[in-house]
Amino acid sequence: MDLEIYGTASKSKHDLLKRLGATPIDYKGEDFVERIRSLTGDGVDAVFDPIGGENFKRSFRALRRGGKLVAYGFYNAVQGRGGSIPLDFVRLQLWHFLPNGRSTAFYSIGALRQKKPDWFSEDLTKLFDLLTQNKIKPIIAARMPLAEAKRAHELIEQAEVQGKIVLTVAETTVQK
Question: 2 pLDDT exceeds 50?
């Protein structure tokens, strides 16, 4: 099975996407739906959209027949940049049932943990096993002390962080 990965990102993250084997697309400087269609002919099999709001419409249009839009995060609504979580959720549900050959899903790690605690625990255990075996290698942009959490959020909001920021907690010793 051939797997092609396209990543929408600001220009500053394009080199990272290329190193990871993806074809970068500048979502701020070009119409990513048009670019995806020009690269694939008919769209992609899956779009994972953390932005929400009006971006969902474009992400849905980027799908080929049989494709799935997975929504999570609702970044725009949370940041006050447009969209409404309840309305976006309803829109996703309606699109899912339209007879257009495409589907939608909403992913929430918190909801999964509540609804299926056994699945959540099993998945988390597998994830940590993969990490300890070096079978997955997350890109870590920075490690910062927990006291700098505000600064970490500011960096993330600037959308220039290339990878994840890990907040560290100093180990303390317990005196008897």
Answer: yes
